Amino acid sequence: MTGLFSSFSLKDITLRNRIAVSPMCQYQAVDGFINDWHSAHYSMLARGGAGLVVVEATAVAPEGRITPGDVGLWSDEHTAGLSSIAAAIKTAGAVAGIQLAHAGRKAGCTPPWQGGAPLDRDDALAWEPVGPSAVPFVPGNDYIPREMTKDNIRQTQQDFARAAERACQAGFQWLELHFAHGFLAQSFLSPQSNTRSDEYGGSLEGRARFLLETVAEVRKFWPDNFPLTVRLGVVEFDDCPEHSFSESLKVIGWLKDAGVDFVDVGLSLATPGENIPWAANFMVPWAARVRREKNIPVGTSWMITQAKEANEFIQDGKVDVIFFARTLLANPHWPYRAARELEITDPHAVLPTPYAYWLQNWSE
Ligand SMILES: CC(=O)[C@H]1CCCN(Cc2ccccc2)C1
């Protein structure tokens, strides 16, 4: 019987359950290097019992960071630190995943707790953002990205590919390309941000070209027996969400043909004014439609907090994996709580032995 605690196999990788730690930016790195914060953070989450732990948005180039504090994999020097993170995740029994990102025109900002606005231009840590077109994320704002040349595009695609190679060398076995949230790839896809008239703009084929060429380059460096996945913003909540969703379904078909194994169904966040219908589980129906209409395994996130509901989403074949974020930040041992609530056999077994032993006969 499938459910939240049934295993999930994709290519040669098997998750012990359907609970994934969603990539959550910590903004604690220096020059892209992880430190004790990340080691403790990811060990904590991996020991909580999730089947998959995806490391936060990891920049494929310095100018692709959301903030100066983003983790990076743009240099061979970054590999060693991330390999220790991958090892810690795997030792705890979870599959080690990593999200590779380029924030595009949303890059070069302060972390959310400092307002999330672009760094002052005279800040020594600031840099010029890049994008498909010289169109600012905030209409009328003077934080305008430099329009990428075709050489810039090719270089960034290589950056993704080389970062994927490093991720494999570091021991990660699940790769998620960040094609959502208004970041670089999403901004190529959205006509709100991509006004190019060359082959990287205009038609849907043109706007999707950056994504498909990036997947093709990554495919050369990421092992075929490990899942190659994308987080894709599948819907823009504008005056006609069905339009962007129908375009996304076409793009997902092309991504699948290019070798993408799984879609983590996310939000577009391509413009600041989106009227997002925030509510519990609100992305599940969209993910279920992708799964059904494109016959591809999917995951999703966004305000999913209840074990019984999550279990039903899996049982009903709506989604294959559920990405939890704040639910797990609030309680890293939430998988154990969920296992008890769902009356799974040996709920304590989701935890490492030193914890499982003492909890096997414990009931509060
Ligand atoms: C890297 C990434 O996708 C993150 C960056 C920070 C904001 N995240 C998106 C977010 C928006 C609103 C509430 C919570 C989260 C996306």
TrEMBL record:
- Which Gene3D superfamilies does this one have? Aldolase class I
Q: State which residue ranges cross the membrane.
A: none
Q: Which GO terms describe its molecular function?
A: FMN binding; NADP binding; NADPH dehydrogenase activity
* Required cofactor names: FMN
- What highest taxon heads this organism's lineage? Bacteria
Domain named NADH:flavin oxidoreductase/NADH oxidase N-terminal is located at 4-343
**Does the record's keyword annotation contain NADP?**
yes
Keywords in alphabetical order, please: Flavoprotein, FMN, NADP, Oxidoreductase, Plasmid
Which Pfam families did the record assign?
Oxidored_FMN
Q: SUPFAM superfamilies recorded for this chain?
A: FMN-linked oxidoreductases (SSF51395)
Looking up PANTHER family in the UniProt record yields:
NADPH DEHYDROGENASE C23G7.10C-RELATED
Q: What name does the UniProt record give this protein?
A: NADH:flavin oxidoreductase/NADH oxidase
The scientific name of the source species is Enterobacter sp. (strain 638)
